[in-house]
Design a protein that fits this description.
Largest sheet: 5 strands, antiparallel
Number of helices: 4
Distance between the termini: 17 Å
Radius of gyration: 15 Å
Number of domains: 1
Strand content: 25-35%
CATH class: Alpha Beta
Structural class: alpha+beta
Number of strands: 5
CATH architecture: 2-Layer Sandwich
Mean pLDDT: 88
CATH superfamily: Histidine kinase-like ATPase, C-terminal domain
Shape: globular
CATH topology: Heat Shock Protein 90
Length: 141
């Protein structure tokens, strides 16, 4: 696969940084012919994954989230890396949406939504880092 890096960016693993990650995504895909739906799915997936990292990956220390975005033909890739607690989101169980709604539970759908919205969702643990690669096929770039 020919890898064409567009941009890379690092944020502190803090909720206050989520808007900076979203702005990075928006600026990185500016000029591409993405539909509103395609951008929404990329944006929401990035927010959900970063939020999970912020809330769970660094319980005892501060950390960072590294994001890289690149194009390959008709696909956009988001690679999200952190050095937090090892966690493979591809192994997360599908949530019972009815139970979540009945219980009025907040949260619990982020990984599920990201996996559903993306066309590729791959996890690896490399060099002490969680490396999650999301891929979205787009109609026209």
């Amino acid at each position: 696969m020919k890898r064409l890096p567009m941009e890379s960016f690092t944020i502190a693993a803090q909720l206050a940084e989520i808007d900076r990650a979203r702005e990075f995504l928006r600026n990185s895909v500016r000029g591409l012919a993405l539909s509103e739906e395609e951008f929404f799915k990329l944006d929401l997936s990035l927010v959900e994954i970063c939020t999970n990292i912020i809330l769970y990956a660094y319980p005892e220390k501060k950390g960072e989230i590294h994001i890289e975005i690149w194009l390959d033909s008709d696909r956009i890739y988001l690679e999200i890396r952190d050095s937090g607690i090892p966690f493979d989101p591809t192994q997360a169980q599908k949530p019972d949406i009815e139970d979540i709604i009945k219980a009025g539970q907040k949260g619990g759908l982020g990984i599920y939504l990201s996996r559903t919205f993306m066309d590729g969702f791959d996890y690896q643990r490399r060099k002490g880092q969680n490396v999650l690669t999301l891929m979205k096929k787009v109609k026209s770039i």
